[in-house]
Amino acid sequence: LSIKLPKEIYKYEFAIRDLIKNKIGRGKVSLNVNLTYNKLTNGNSPINSSALQNAVEILKQINSFTNSDSKIELNQILMLKDLFINENQESNGIDFEIIANSINSAITKFVEMKNYEGFELKKDLDFRVNKILDELIKIEEISKNSTKEYFEKFKERAKKLVDEFSDDKERFNIELA
């Protein structure tokens, strides 16, 4: 069981593992949970502006320390987003029931898909087994006559050998062998 969770819900990892283990008995299962928040609810921005200013100051200090004249670009600022974006603003109010319902829904769909896949595999195996049985019946029918034919040819050859080499026993034994 491989689980990837956002840091906000690590505390629920064992409960999530139990949810999965109770419904899926065997096999390799990977679960990746992503949380999405409405960032601008009630006009509240998740960006901490003073922390953003601090992040920009850090980048300026790095430029100064390295004697670089380059401008600070947006992608550099976004690399430090953990410093100024408050994703945890809503994470304290995470309702585990919503997460559990989502995971249960995913497990239900997963089990349905596996059942369908198993049904399709069974149909394919049944078709192949029946095809083999049909061919086996044909082989048995053909082989009934071929054994009798082979035995008759063998008898005729043995009679011919007896007639041809009855005087020369040594030559008869060689030919019989």
What would you say this structure looks like, in words?
This protein has 177 residues and is mainly alpha-helical. The protein is 65% helix and 3% strand. The protein has six helices and two strands. It has helices at 13-23, 49-65, 74-78, 81-84, 96-165, 169-176; strands at residues 2-4, 30-32. The chain has a two-stranded parallel sheet.
Overview features:
elongated; 177 residues; two-stranded parallel ribbon; 2 strands; mainly alpha; 6 helices
Summarize this structure briefly.
This protein has 177 residues and is mostly helical.
Strands, total number: 2
**Strand order, sheet with most strands:** 1-2
Query: What does the main sheet amount to?
Result: 2 strands, parallel
Helix content: 55-70%
Average residue pLDDT: 83
Please give the count of helices.
Answer: 6
Structural class: mainly alpha
Can you tell me the residue ranges where pLDDT is under 50 for at least 5 consecutive residues?
Answer: none
- List the quaternary state of the chains: single chain
N-to-C SSE string, H for helix and E for strand? EHEHHHHH
- The proportion of strand residues reads under 5%
Outline type:
elongated
Radius of gyration: 39 Å
Q: What is the first-to-last residue Cα distance?
A: 66 Å
Task: Give the topology, please.
Layout: E1 2-4, H1 13-23, E2 30-32, H2 49-65, H3 74-78, H4 81-84, H5 96-165, H6 169-176
Helix pairs in contact: 1-5, 5-6
